[in-house]
Specification:
This is Chorein N-terminal domain-containing protein. This protein is α+β, with helices and mostly antiparallel strands. The chain is built from three helices and five strands; from the N terminus they run αβββββαα.
Length: 148
């Protein structure tokens, strides 16, 4: 049950940045305090809201590891590690700085903020549905806080 909750939170958050996450790619080992995601492709538009002067053309991550110290969550840091990262980017053309393109990227930023709010709402809903289980509520809130 707890692993399913962690899986739902991780997929909800990382799904904004990683394309088509498959269950086989995501490994959760609660006792080792690790969430592992291997061989994933980045969503190219996911970073448009940052208004960077370059555009992603391709992006892959060989290994994404999240160390979550369950027993000391709130005192010890959550550590996110990336290995074998491949990013191909190019300078944005002048036409990409036209008003309609800027507005599109601003809209992408608003969508990202909305997705973060929805994830927080989902975590509250999951916690509310498990009323009385204060440990689960606490862990959920901490994971969302530290990853978000």
């Amino acid at each position: 049950m707890f692993e399913g909750l962690v899986r739902q939170l991780i997929l909800g958050y990382l799904g904004r940045y990683i394309k088509d996450i498959q269950k086989e790619q995501l490994k959760i080992t609660l006792w080792n305090e690790e969430v592992l995601l291997e061989d994933v492709e980045l969503i190219l538009e996911a970073f448009d809201y940052l208004q960077l002067p370059f555009a992603l053309k391709q992006g892959r991550v060989g290994k994404l590891s999240i160390k979550i110290p369950w027993k000391k969550l709130g005192w010890d840091p959550v550590i996110i590690s990336l290995e074998d990262v491949l990013v191909c980017a190019s300078q944005r053309d002048d036409k990409e700085w036209r008003m309609d393109e800027v507005e599109r990227r601003e809209f992408a930023g608003k969508k990202a903020k909305l997705a973060a709010a929805e994830l927080a709402k989902l975590s509250r809903r999951v916690c509310d549905s498990q009323a009385g289980n204060s440990f689960t509520s606490y862990i959920t809130a901490k994971v969302v806080y530290f990853i978000g």
